[in-house]
Amino acid sequence: MIDKKNSPRDIHILHITLWYYVIVISYVIWTTCTILYDVVYNIPVLCIIHKTVFDDTGITM
């Protein structure tokens, strides 16, 4: 059911909220998968990613 009283502003807020949830959920899934991969295969994926990012940007941890 589409409510005809919805203003464009309400629809805009709804879109922002949906995108926010999509981003948060994908981040959570990605983090969970990374941690699981880390535990199962004993490969510190997060460490490798951090090392790569920090090495490339020249920032030392």
Walkthrough of the structure:
The structure is a single chain. The mean pLDDT is 73. The chain has helices at residues 8-41, 45-57. With 61 residues, it is an all-alpha fold. The radius of gyration is 19 Å and the shape is elongated. It is built from 2 helices and no strands. Keywords: Membrane, Transmembrane, Transmembrane helix. The chain crosses the membrane at residues 12-30.
Short key terms for the protein model shown above:
mainly alpha, single chain, about 60 residues, 2 helices, transmembrane, elongated
Helix content percent band: over 70%
Biggest pleated-sheet summary? none
Q: How big a fraction of the residues is strand?
A: under 5%
Give start-end ranges of low-pLDDT stretches: none
Number of strands: 0
Helix count, DSSP H or I runs of 4 or more residues: 2
Helix/strand-derived category reads mainly alpha
Straight-line N-to-C gap:
53 Å
- Average pLDDT score: 73
Shape: elongated
Order of helices and strands, N to C?
A: HH
Tell me the radius of gyration: 19 Å
Keywords: Membrane, Transmembrane, Transmembrane helix
Give a quick summary of the entry.
The chain crosses the membrane at residues 12-30. By secondary structure, this protein is mainly alpha-helical.
